[in-house]
Every structure is written in C-alpha cells, then in structure tokens.
C-alpha cells in the first residue's frame, strides 16, 4: 500500500507535494492569505485510494483535466465552491463534489475545510462499469458534479469509504487489505457502489430491465460456479463476466428465480463454508483468520450475519 504524509506551511511545497499525489495545478492563497497549513495523508491500494487533505487556509485550486482518475471530495467541515464541466456546486459535508477526468476545475476551499477524498483510477471505473453493463462502455463515464451524501445508497457507500480509510491507516501486515483477495473485493465493491449510488452518463442504461431468454438455466449455471469457486477471490461481477451477461441481468434472473440476489447467494455460500471451517478447526485457529480466508473483510458484519444464519456467534462455534 502506497502512503504519503506531508505537513508544511510553504505554499510552493504544498503545491508540489499535492501535485505529486494528484496532478500539476495552480495553488493560490485567497486575498490576504500569505501561507498555508497543509496537512495531507494519502494512501492507495490497487486502483483506489484515500487522501485526507487540509490546507488550513482559504485557497484557490485550479487543476487541468485529471485525465487518469476520478475524485470524490467530501468536506469534513466548512465548504468549497467547485466549478467543473460547466457546472458549479457548493460542497459541504452533505454534498460531495465528484470530478471526472475530462475537464479542468476551479475550486475555492474555505479556511478550516479539511476534506476526505476518494480516488479511483479511470481504468478501474471503466472495468467495473463494463461488469455492470455486461459489455464495455461506448464512451467516457462522466459523473454529475454534486453528490448528495445523505441518501441511503450514498450513506452505504460512505461507510465503505470509511472502512477503506481505516484499513489503509493500519500497518500493512495488520490490515485486512494485506490479503489480496479481500483488497480486490473491496475495490470492486466501492467502485461498483459508486456507479450505482451517484448519477452519471450510464445511470439510465443501468436502470433498464435486463431480460434473459433462459433465466432458470442462467441461475443454475451461476449457482454451480459460485458453489465451486466461492472460496476464491470471486465477485458477482466476475460471475456475470464468466457467464457473458451483465450484472443487472444476473441480478434480475436471481430475483425472478430465487427471490434473492447473487450477492446474497454468494455470501450464504461463504457463511456456510466458514461455519464448516469453524466446526472443523483445530487448536490455535482464530475467527479472524477463518473469516478473512472466506472473503469477509468486515469482521463485525461477518459476526452479525453469522449469528443471524446459525443462531450463535462464530467464537461459540469455534469453541465447540
């Protein structure tokens, strides 16, 4: 996991260090401001990352088109006026700004406006959109500039961002992201959820019904694939890709045939496998190791889902 931490009061050093993390840009203190109080911690894994950034002073930031990545900028406090792609939004803790790679930006950050910024590589976004659509996109993905953060979908996505930030802040060998399969699943989940939670150029297409001529056969093939490979770094997107359908087609068929979702079915298979592993575990085994081995990154959520399915905690099963 790449990590950068910077503290400086010098404007030119602040511009250079932030530019190394993101891209070259103009950084101008607002009228009457002579210095900054930059505090930055940037961490990445795979195609995503978290940057905690605070200039400490009122500044104007003018980057050229980002070209290779997207940013979701969430103020912790204060506000930011963001102009991007012909639109303007006043960003607050309740309204994030989402920058797409194709246009320059002009941003005025107020004093005392620390931001948590989610970074996503453009290739990662394109790949996850292709999985959702069942084919490569015909053109660039452009998000709406303002993202309301108090909707149910955005709230769920933000919980994932906070979890990613917490794990990225841990020593490498103590983080769940040290396990490549877990890191890959989290990256796909966060980018996929962003594509479903916030409006962009393909939102309407993703919302269209996705019929399949033989839904029962498709679901049977999907169930077999999941049962045979749920112990691997498998995601619903990869199941859909292997079956040559879109994620929404797979979801629609599961709902029609089984009244559930492929995500829930995959999770149930993993819970059942973890239950078997806990019952068969020998001395020295741990709930954490078995949970991670079976693809559960969030241990608290694993424990809750496990109790709901089996009527006892994982640790109780392990002690039997």
Automatic annotation (TrEMBL):
Q: Which InterPro entries match?
A: AraC-bd_2 (IPR035418), AraC_XylS_family_regulators (IPR050204), Homeodomain-like_sf (IPR009057), HTH_AraC (IPR018060), HTH_AraC-typ_CS (IPR018062)
Query: Which Pfam families does the annotation name?
Result: AraC_binding_2, HTH_18
Question: What PANTHER family does UniProt report for this protein, alphabetically?
Answer: HTH-TYPE DNA-BINDING TRANSCRIPTIONAL ACTIVATOR EUTR, HTH-TYPE TRANSCRIPTIONAL ACTIVATOR RHAS-RELATED
Species of origin: Micromonospora palomenae
Superkingdom of this protein's organism: Bacteria
Q: What is this protein called?
A: AraC family transcriptional regulator
Report domain HTH araC/xylS-type positions.
Answer: 220-320
Which GO molecular function terms does the record list?
DNA-binding transcription factor activity; sequence-specific DNA binding
Q: Write the record's keywords in alphabetical order, separated by commas.
A: DNA-binding, Transcription, Transcription regulation
The answer, when asked if Cytoplasm is one of the entry's keywords, is: no
